[in-house]
Amino acid sequence: MWFQSAFREIYMSAFRYARRAEVLGDSVYDHAPGAIVLSSGLAYPPHLPDVVREAMEAARDHGTQTLQYGPLMGLEELRDEIVRFVAQDGVSCDRENVLVTYGAKSALDLACRIFVEPGDRIIVAAPTYMTALQIMRAHEAAFLDISQDEEGLDADELETQLERLRKNGERMPKLMFDVPDFHNPTGITMSENRRRRLVAMAEHYGFIILEDDPYRRLRFEGEAIPPLKSFDENGHVIALGTVSKILAPGLRVGWAIGAKEIVDRMAMQKADGGTNPFSQHIVADLMRSNKMSKHIDDLSAEMRLHRNAMVEGFAEFLPDAKVRKPQGGYFLWAELPEGTNAEAVAARAVELGVEVSDGRLCFPNETSRNHLRLAYSFVDAKTIRKGVRLLGQAYDELKAQA
Fold it and tell me: Could you tell me the fold of the domain covering 52-289?
């Protein structure tokens, strides 16, 4: 009967999804066939590390450990290597302060699980890392978005906002998320003075800083600035780390470093039964040897060429855009002239054969219309130059139509 068919169509196909699952979209790692990918921070294929020896040893000599469920906190040998690794940056911690995770994004999710109730505020820069915003939105967080200047997240603006909230008796933020070194997406590196001040503010106002630092070792020039965690004396900073940018994202190994009571609670929220011990063993071996440090040096030199090609490409093919030359990392932030529809530019660029990201995705509470986020990590310098030329063509076409 017709009404039975109509009933099935209306009611049986209307699955009751959670609100976080109502929106469908493409992954940033799915790309149009043949497109020049300047949209996401993928690893550069020619510089992926050779891990054949380490993988063979992990399977042959340690199979009863590496092919089994892993310890909840992570392999002790890897946690010890992470302690030694971050000590090079002035971060003092013990094995008990280290939780191994399935990448840094997993660590962020676990931190949100133990701290964030629906409606809780999280301090973020505007703009900030788009995937981090997705994770925090999944926990129904509210955002206190703070602008940036050349020294990083604006501490004066943050203090003014925090005092306003306190004076009005409003809910104070529990967390702050930021990328202090070669910020994603802006490329800004936070000054030491700003880092010290933010740690002091975290202690004074009672929030936790989530310091996401995936690009720190990929520095092209300039002097390294100590991480926020190195200034933390009272457990108000959780350092989020990963090998995704300095080794290979497919290894899926990251970590969180924090007070023992915090990382223990994060561990209890893990759904993976213990992060992949096979990959953990490989990473521990690479950290122990000179292989990882040599790989980072080689990769930094290559990424510097990529960065230069992109900056020079903008100067030649899209001079109307304002770009900041980052001292390291993977990303370039482009500000198009006021009134430009960056979404339309990005859409036309895809038609011409190059992918870039619309910058509005990086803003938590406002819609920016004239910014683009680009990554120079995935393709070689010559291809980057071609991609920026096509992007410039897309911009020129839309400008001519305006």
Answer: Aspartate Aminotransferase; domain 2 (3.40.640)
Average pLDDT estimate for 374-378: 98
Nearest to 302 by CA among 43, 55, 100, 17: 43
Look up residue 269 and give its amino acid: Q
Options 3.30.70.1450, 1.10.10.10, 3.90.1150.10, 3.40.50.20; CATH of 14-48+293-401: 3.90.1150.10
CA distances from 328 to 219, 250, 369, 399 (A): 4, 22, 26, 31
Residue 3 has pLDDT above 80, yes or no: no
What proportion of the chain, given as a percentage, has pLDDT over 70?
A: 94
Strand partners, 322: 335
Q: What is the pLDDT of residue 1?
A: 47
Helix then strand count (H, E) for the chain reads 13, 15
pLDDT on residue 143: 97
Separation between Cα atoms, residue 233 and residue 196, nearest integer Å: 11
Q: pLDDT of 291-310, one tens digit each?
A: 999 999 999 999 999 999 99
Whether the pTM exceeds 0.90: the reply is yes
Strands of 4-141, DSSP E: 36-37, 98-101, 121-125
- Given a cut of 90, is residue 8 above it in pLDDT? no
Q: How far is CA 172 from CA 122, 145, 146, in A?
A: 9, 13, 15
DSSP H or E segment with residue 255: strand 254-257
C-alpha 393/C-alpha 390 separation (Å) is 5
